[in-house]
Amino acid sequence: MQKIYMACDHAAFDGKTELKNYLSKKFEIIDLGTDSSDRCNYPDYAIKFAKAFQKEPLPGILLCGSGIGISIVANRFKGIRAALCRTPLEAELSRQHNDSNVLCLGARLNSAEELVAISEAWFKAEFEGGRHSERIEIFNELGELA
Fold first, then answer.
1. What positions carry a catalytic annotation?
2. Is the pTM of the predicted complex or chain greater than 0.85?
3. Superfamily designation of domain 3-140
4. DSSP string, 56-123
């Protein structure tokens, strides 16, 4: 069973829990927290995710209330191509054209059903390569090590 990472802040705890319950039928999930809806800081969990990713690069999902903050932090790190997606089509294109390896979601902006549909589309899509490969190479070396 393929392993994936998941992490979130307090605003997305319920959304992560529902999505994790669904995805755990298909993936071995390494849950990097948070473990409650108690207030916390999303950068802490994006950083924890990035450190785990740099030790073992597995795809994963990051969630916060809007998905914006956690995606900004994740994209600071070398090797991470985090895509904030609000629709299944955005998720599909982020994989096909940008070879995204981290899906970012906004648990306050998408329903549980939408989070599942977006995640399904993201995991089903594959990088197309070709002309997109050259673009990926341009920014692959950017970012900081965790």
1. 64, 97
2. yes
3. Sugar-phosphate isomerase, RpiB/LacA/LacB (3.40.1400.10)
4. S---EEEEESSSHHHHHHHTTBTT--EEE-SSHHHHHHHHHTT---EEEEETTTS-HHHHHHHHHHHH
